[in-house]
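Problem statement: downstream parser choked on a complex file, so we are re-checking the raw output for the fructose -6-phosphate run. The parser issue turned out to be on our end (a line-ending mismatch), but while we're here, posting the original submission so the record is complete.
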Amino acid sequence: EKGGYDYFMLKEIAEQPKAVADTLLGRIDVAGSLTLDEIRIPAEVLREATKVVIVACGTAFHAGLIAKYAIEHWTRIPCEVELASEFRYRDPILDERTLVIAISQSGETMDTLMAVRHAREQGARVLAICNTNGSTIPRESDAVLYTHAGPEVAVASTKAFLTQLVACYLVALYLGQVRGTQAGDEIRAVIRDLAEISTAVERVLETMEPVRELARSLAAKNTVLFLGRHVGYPVALEGALKLKELAYMHAEGFAAGELKHGPIALIDEDLPVVVVVPSPRGHSVLHDKIVSNIQEIRARGARTIVIAEEGDETVSPYADHLIRIPVTPALLQPLVATVPLQVFACELATARGNEVDQPRNLAKSVTVE
Ligand code: F6R
C-alpha cells in the first residue's frame, strides 16, 4: 500500500502534484474565474466581512500564515492568524462580520475545534478548510472547502499542507473576485498560474537527488536554522517543524529581517543555514536584503543552503548549496519552496535511523486540548 516507496511520507511527497491538481479540479471554470459554490456563505456576507481570522495548529497554522499575505494583498481585508490553542483563551474580538477560517487536515484537532465553537458562539461565520470528509470541524462550521489530498497516513503533514495552501489561495482569490477589488487583473492572472502550478511541483520533485545527498551529509549536526521573508518566512517555520518532528534535531525558523535583532549571534562555523529567497521579480527589495543576509551568514563561516528561483544568479556566489525552484508568482512560491524542505527532513530522519512515518511522541490527529 506504500506503492513501492519505503515510507508513506515519501509516497505522499510524490503525490503532491496530483493532490494540488485535484484540489483545483472543478473550481476554476473555462472563463478562468472561480466557482466555489461549496462555500455556502452568501456572497453578500463575504462582501461585508470586515475581518478574517484564521485558526489552526502546527503545519496547518503555517498554511494560515501564508494565507494572510494572500488575503490582505488580494482583498485588502485585514487578516489575523492565530494558533487555535491561544485564540480560544484570549477572549478574541469577533462579531457577525468576522469570517473565521479553520484549517485542519484531520478535522478532529481539539484545539481547532474549540476555537471554531467559540467563534460561532460569538456570531462569526466559520469556513473550514479540511481534508477529511464528514469530520467534526467541517460538521460544526458554516461551510467547508475540502482539500483533495487523499488520505494522509504519515504523521508529518506534506501533501495536506500543499493542498491547504491551494485552498487558502482559492479562498483569497474568491474573496477578491466576489468583492471586486482593484487587484482584479492580477487575480485573473494568478488564477491562470494556479491552474498550471502542479507541473511546477512535479518539476521540483524531479530535482531532489542533490537535496537527499546534502541531507545525508548533515546527519551528525545538532542544529539547523531556516530563514525566509514574506511568504518565505512561514516556509522557513515549516522547514524547521518538519526537521524537529522527523529528525529530532534542534531547528528554528526566523524572519530574515530579524537576524540582526538577535539570531545572528547563533551563527558560527559550519552551522547549516537554509535560506528561502523571494522572487527577484516579485519582491526585488526583499530579494536584495536577503542576498545581503546570506553574505553576512557566510562571512561568519556558516554553511549556506539557498533555495532560489531558476535564473536568479545573484545568489550563486554565496551559496554553498543551491536548490533551484521553478519561477512562480511571488505569493505562490511556498507551493514549490516547501517541497525540498520536506525531502530534506525525510532524508535526514532516515539517515539518523528514525521512524519516518511514526515519529516518537506524536499522533496523527490530536484530539485532546
Ligand atoms: C506537522 C503536523 C501537525 C499538524 C497539526 C494540525 O507535520 O502534522 O503539526 O499539522 O497537528 O493537525 P490538523 O491539520 O489535522 O488539524
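For whoever reads this later: Residues 173 and 205 are 27 Å apart (CA to CA).
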